[in-house]
Design brief:
The protein is mainly beta. It is built from three helices and 22 strands. The relative contact order is 0.12.
Length: 311
């Protein structure tokens, strides 16, 4: 840029000047680059998913740039960082190219909630050192879907006496897309005996994994009288970020009783059957008439006088 003014003197000696005038000349050797980075898709839902990063590199300077490349300067992914390749490595002024790199999502990325990737572009001008663009960042957000299922069963399926033991099995499955820790089972039943102490051999589940927890219950006489034992429970676990996830309730019913039908309650028709036994017993009994022999006999008056006593 060059700015100047003109001046001169009149015949009388007065000095006069012109307005300022500016001229700008662009140097042919000025070099610059820009970078715009994006990710597709912008959300991730499962481990193994592929994310493609696109890097649009533009030569915004006045010189041709060679050895154009893109380098990641920050990457929060837990897997192997993407390798970025550029189809064109020489850019004339105002020319662009799109470099790409693919990343495979790790389970730890889903658990963390996001992957942040920052990169810069660089190129070499005809003279001088290589130049770099300003950094550009793309963030891929995880859609977390924590879920648990619980399936409960009891063995044996029938009991007939107090003191018998029922072993309950609780199959817990992580049906979501995040790792769950502190896996456990909570028994929500109301019963007459002592609730079972439930233990789980595994307390951390990856998506798709299962574990079987167990607990033992001792049958009481009240259970036998009631005719059945219902046991209901729910499973729970924690996300790495903290919130608790619970399953739906699952119930196992064990039949309890001393009768042939496996129930402590009176069997159907049992009362009528007892009544029939009583009726039959009554009908088969001989009726006996009891007479008081000490009761005085009454004398009956007949026509013609008193009846004579028989000898």
């Amino acid at each position: 840029m060059n700015t100047a003014t003109a001046s001169g003197a009149t015949p009388t000696g007065a000095v006069i000047g012109s307005n300022a005038s500016t001229a700008t000349v662009t140097a042919a050797g000025a070099s610059s680059l820009t970078l715009v980075k994006t990710a597709s898709p912008s959300t991730m839902t499962r481990a193994g998913q592929a994310v493609t990063y696109s890097h649009v590199v533009t030569n915004t300077g006045g010189t041709t740039l060679t050895a154009v490349s893109v380098t990641d300067t920050a990457f929060s992914g837990r897997g192997t960082p993407p390798v970025v390749t550029c189809p064109v490595t020489t850019l004339a002024p105002r020319a662009s190219t799109t470099c790409t790199g693919t990343y495979t999502v790790a389970q730890a990325d889903i658990d963390a909630g996001s992957v942040v990737n920052t990169a810069v572009a660089s190129g070499t001008p005809p003279e001088g050192p290589a130049i770099r663009s300003a950094p550009s960042t793309a963030t891929v957000t995880a859609t977390q879907d924590p879920r648990l299922t619980l399936s409960k069963s009891g063995t044996p399926s029938r009991v007939s006496a107090a003191g018998q033991r029922i072993v309950y099995s609780y199959v817990i499955t992580n049906t979501g897309n995040v790792v769950l820790t502190d896996i456990g089972v909570r028994d929500t039943s109301r019963r007459s005996g002592v609730p079972p102490v439930i233990t789980c051999p595994v307390t951390t589940l990856e998506p798709g994994e299962s574990t079987t927890c167990s607990g033992t219950y001792v049958v009481t006489w009240t259970d036998i009288v009631n005719g059945s034992i219902e046991n209901t429970a729910t499973a729970s676990g924690n996300l790495l970020s903290g919130p608790v996830v619970s399953s739906g309730a699952s119930t196992a019913t064990v039949v309890a009783g001393t009768g042939a039908a496996g129930s402590g309650r009176p069997q159907a028709g049992g009362v009528d059957r007892q009544k029939n036994k009583i009726r039959n017993k009554t009908s088969n009994t001989t009726r006996i008439k009891i007479t008081d022999r000490h009761k005085k006999k009454k004398h009956h008056r007949h026509r013609g006088g008193h009846q004579k006593r028989r000898r």
